[in-house]
Amino acid sequence: MLNALAIIFHLVAINIWVGGMFFIIIVLGKVVSTLEEPTQHAFWQHTLKRFFYWVWLAVIGLLGTGIGMIFYRFGDLAITPWYILVMASFGISMVIIFMVIYFVFYRNFEREFNAGNIEGSRYQLRMIRRLGIVNMVLGFCVVVVIGGSPYLL
Question: How many CB atoms are located within 10 Å of the residue 15 CB?
Fold first, then answer.
């Protein structure tokens, strides 16, 4: 029962994170680009602040449930199936990239935006988007590996 709840929470958290990245990058990016640049930056400041709150909750939940399920179900890493280890490696890579996005580029973006430096905040947003695309692709890889591997082998 506990393992089932952990799996459900894990799946919901990954959907919030990866689905949120897809929506922000693919859908909102095109719409927001039609706004005047200062308005775009204000929009992104408010949107990313709210989105990153949910990403932090997802990251904490994913790490907790992921590590917990590995040790609850398999006992240790030595007997954990390879595809779960691949998924975990992608997931940890995503967390590291998110931390770079958040602690480097997002914080610099806020600083530049609040100082009125449009050129500086534009660069930070560009880097957030590029790393966000990398994370989104890794997230899709996680879904493919964990969703398909048990059935393809």
Answer: 13
Both tokens of 87, joined, read 């998924």
By residue count, the chain amounts to 153
pLDDT string in tens for the chain (153-residue length): 888 999 999 999 999 999 999 999 999 999 999 999 999 999 999 999 999 999 999 999 999 999 999 999 999 899 999 999 999 999 999 999 999 999 999 999 999 999 999 999 999 999 999 999 999 999 999 999 988 887 876
Tokens of 133: 């695309």
- Decide: helix, strand or coil at residue 105: helix
Task: State which H helix or E strand residue 153 sits in.
Answer: none
pTM of the model: 0.94
What 3-state DSSP class applies to 34?
coil
Consecutive H or E run containing 35: none
**Is the distance from CB of 87 to CB of 142 less than 8 angstroms?**
yes
DSSP 76: S
Distance, in Å, from the CA atom of 136 to the CA atom of 116, rounded to the nearest integer, reads 30
Could you give the angle at which helices 107-114 and 37-73 cross, rounded to 10 degrees? 160
